[in-house]
Amino acid sequence: MKEKDKNLTSSEKVANKINDFLVRRHKVVIGTAIAIVVVIIAVCVAVVLVQNNTERKFNALSDLEGQYSAFYSLDAASEEYQTSYDEFMTASSALIASGLDTYPGAKAQLLVADLAYDREEYESAAESYMAVADAQSDTYLGQLALMNAAASYENAGNQQRALELYNQVFDTYGQNSPYAPKALFDAARLYEATGNTELARATYEQLTGLYLAPENGSQPSEYARMAEAYLVTMD
Asked: What's the start-to-end Cα distance of the chain, in Å?
């Protein structure tokens, strides 16, 4: 042991050893520190880029919603409408390309489907709604899209497919889905329209049993009230 180290405390000896290590390895330590700083900067830049990209998408979605709303004030036969339609479809394509698993992409696809429905292009609307229903099956957008797809198929004259989807809403999302009462009512209505009165009655009864006097004390569903009225006429 060096003479100068004999009278040092244990803490001072440890400090000296650390200092000696840093002196000998200063290049490695500095290089590691620089690498850490570079990684931190890269992460920060990535986060900022993601935030900016997300903000741009939501701003674009807001603009797209404004374009959609403007169609109500346009004459569908006018040149202005056609120009607006072309611009809307171009803008929506860019958002949809970002992925239907994202909210902006899915909502843009829903707006495209809504516009097709408004234009009575029901088959096209149904396809767009189903794309959202599949991609957003775990969100409320998926439930909404599935209901709208069913309505589109019904308007297109495909009652069987519509019936399947109305039943799918209830079977998949259960009685607590906000769309469950309407899905049951529409399924019962289609059963009745296609002559299957027994299934229609059973579905109306299921609807009234679940939603006419909910156990949680909430107001009865309007669809349960209508189902009750339908049952009276079927007696």
From this structure: 107
Exposure on the CB side of residue 38, measured as CA atoms within 13 A:
6
Looking at every residue in the chain, the average pLDDT score rounds to: 85
Helix 79-96 × helix 26-70 angle, to 10°: 150
Confidence of residue 2 (pLDDT cuts 50, 70, 90): very low
Who wins on pLDDT, 152 or 43?
152
Domain boundaries, the chain: 158-235
Q: Which amino acid is at 213?
A: A
H or E element in which residue 37 lies: helix 26-70
CA 176 to chain centre: 18
Phi, psi for 221 (deg, rounded to 5) = -70, 140
Q: What is the pLDDT of residues 198-207, one digit of tens each?
A: 999 999 999 9
- Enter the tokens of residue 220: 């009865």
Q: Give 158-235's CATH code, choosing from 2.40.50.100, 3.40.50.300, 1.25.40.10, 1.10.8.50.
A: 1.25.40.10
